[in-house]
Amino acid sequence: MTEREGRPYLLLALAVLFISVGSILVRLTAAPPLAVAFYRIGFATAFIAPFAFAGAGHSLVAASRRERWLVLASGAALAVHFATWIASLSFTSIASSVLLVNTAPVFTVVLSRVFLHEKVSATVLAAIGLALLGALLIAGGDFGREPGSLTGNLLAVAGAATLAVYHVVGRGLRDALPLNAYVFLVWATAAATLAGITAAFGTPFAPYPARAWLLLMALGLVPTVFGHGLVNRSLRSIPAPIVGLFLLGEPVGASILALLVFGEVPTVSTMLGGLVILVALGLVLLRREG
């Protein structure tokens, strides 16, 4: 792999690091899950607005009706992803929640084949299976340890399915819109969707402690602008299933951070599962056909 060929993968690895911080910041924020989801994407949209608003307006005018609907679908999927996944962290452990939401590649492979007609090599399929085995090892050590863990696990799986929709639609629009315009339009749609959901459930938008506001802004910047922003850039040059597989590295990083910040000691199954996932990621680096 040349330096130029390896750069998108390096950026994707950096994105995983940034995204791994997300679950920690969510847990530290003293606010209801829906409010956290809304402000996370809302602040992220505000942060990139000065650089993307004008271009997004021009791109939206020039886009076809189908492309506009796809942008709306992508934004709505992202909104539901954040709402369900952030809510899951209130019911289950960080390891299980982050692990299960990263089963998105299973959904992504199916969607990519059906809608984008992308081929996935046998090696990548095997790596996905190996990564899912690691996922089961991590989740198996945590199931039933906390009240309501089943609810949390189901919410995390819902977050995985909608994350896959978001990724696949983004991949499908890679040639239709400039990256900054696409990201801004999708995030703004997600923020508007979450504002409606938050209001519908009667969740208060304020007041919250000053510390919570700082954490919400950090959520909007680190895992969202830096993390998901780099993921969107990676989707321009790397097939969606491989991007999703790389994101399986998040449970490893999040579990380590959970240990350092909250004292959540990983079980033996968590450590074994993390090792299996790293092996799967190595397979993708060696055989990245998609």
Account of the protein in words:
The chain has 290 residues and is mainly alpha-helical. It has one domain. The protein contains 13 helices and no strands. Helix 3 crosses helix 10, helix 4 (65-88) crosses helix 9 (179-200) and helix 7 packs antiparallel against helix 13. The relative contact order is 0.23. The mean pLDDT is 83.
> How many DSSP H or I helices?
13
Radius of gyration: 18 Å
Helix and strand element order: HHHHHHHHHHHHH
Low-confidence stretches: none
Annotate the secondary structure layout.
Elements: H1 3-20, H2 22-28, H3 33-62, H4 65-88, H5 94-101, H6 104-116, H7 122-140, H8 149-172, H9 179-200, H10 210-234, H11 240-246, H12 250-262, H13 268-286
Helix pairs in contact: 1-10, 1-12, 2-10, 3-4, 3-9, 3-10, 4-8, 4-9, 5-7, 5-8, 5-12, 6-8, 6-11, 7-13
Short précis:
With 290 residues, the chain is mainly α.
Spell out the key features of this protein:
13 helices; 290 residues; globular
